[in-house]
Amino acid sequence: MKQQKKGKKGEFHHKRSLGQNFLTDEALFEQLVDLSGVGPEDSVLEIGAGAGGMTKVLSKRCRKVISIEIDDALLPILGVVLQQCGNVRLVHGDVMRLNLPEVTKDLGPFHVVANIPYYLTTDLMTLLFTSDMPIQSISVMVQKEAAEKMVARPGEEGYGMLSVRAQYTYAPEIALDVPACMFTPPPKVDSAFVVMPRREKPCVDVQDENLLFRVAGAAFAMRRKTMENNLIATFRVPREKAGEWMEKSGLDRGARGETLSLKDFAALADTIGNNR
Ligand code: SAM
């Protein structure tokens, strides 16, 4: 499919503000769908239909596709490109404002496969990671740096809330590096396709999930400080109490938050929950 740019005759202009860096290579779309692992029995939610290149391949290879697109200017193009795709429902709207459980309710359990707008990465991924929708896997093209955050382990650069949220429920892996030149127009950064099958159950047991994420949030609030200092600031407790929580959780009182694992955060959350 040809990408549109330029022109005064009502033709399409890519909008940088909407993260419109389109992919055009048919073989790459096929490869991405292969990597996502979705098949003929599966339902898929795509976020950001763009000019419909990925949507068309998903339509051919999956049972049902819902594709969300915010930009009115793409609707006529999508109407033509997806003309033969009877199993695609195009939803015009802002993914962050739509009622996604309502939009996707007829899909049953579904997979997310998308080349997402990069400006939305953190908010959109957090929304998906924390949602109650029956998402079976998430496979997304994101900036390479964001991909590295999702797979980062304790102590590695990029380890933070996105890593913790991704890894708690999903098993993220970078499946493919994709250079900027594959996009039209090319973004300033390279990209990566991250594939995240949902775990059967979260990777750690914890009594209170909200408290787990509050503890993790505390760990990354002030990266250079010790976890103990971050606990004092976040939970407004005296040093003695924070130290007691660290020790009861089997953690070194001098440890920095960014070196702690999800298992450590879960131990701390349980200790805090039981020893307020
Ligand atoms: N899927 C196409 C492809 O791979 O070539 C387009 C991907 S492009 C990176 C992201 C798409 O998301 C754009 O078409 C953009 O208009 C759309 N988009 C941006 N913000 C959005 C939002 N808040 N809700 C829904 N779609 C959005």
Would you kindly provide a brief summary of this structure?
The protein is α/β, with parallel strands linked by helices.
Question: Can you walk me through this structure?
Answer:
With about 280 residues, the chain is α/β, with parallel strands linked by helices. It has two domains: about 180 residues, Vaccinia Virus protein VP39 (Rossmann fold), CATH 3.40.50.150; about 70 residues, Helicase, Ruva Protein, domain 3 (Orthogonal Bundle). Helix 2 links the parallel strand 2 and strand 3. It is elongated. It starts with about 20 loop residues before the first strand and ends with a helix. The site of S-adenosylmethionine has 23 residues, from strand 1, helix 2 and strand 3.
Ranges where pLDDT stays below 50 over 5 or more residues in a row are 1-7
* Gross geometry: elongated
CATH architecture of the largest domain: 3-Layer(aba) Sandwich
Average pLDDT taken over every residue:
95
Give the topology string: H per helix, E per strand: EHEHEHEHEHEHHEEEHHHH
Short descriptors:
single chain; 276 residues; alpha/beta; Rossmann fold; Helicase, Ruva Protein, domain 3; 2 domains; seven-stranded mixed sheet; 11 helices; 9 strands; elongated; disordered N terminus; binds S-adenosylmethionine
Blueprint (SSEs and pairs):
Elements: E1 22-23, H1 26-36, E2 43-47, H2 53-61, E3 64-69, H3 75-81, E4 88-92, H4 100-103, E5 110-115, H5 121-130, E6 135-143, H6 144-151, H7 161-169, E7 173-178, E8 183-184, E9 191-197, H8 209-221, H9 227-235, H10 239-248, H11 262-274
Parallel strand pairs: 2-3, 2-5, 3-4, 5-6
Antiparallel strand pairs: 1-8, 6-9, 7-9
Helix pairs in contact: 1-2, 5-7, 6-7, 8-9, 8-11, 9-10
The protein binds S-adenosylmethionine.
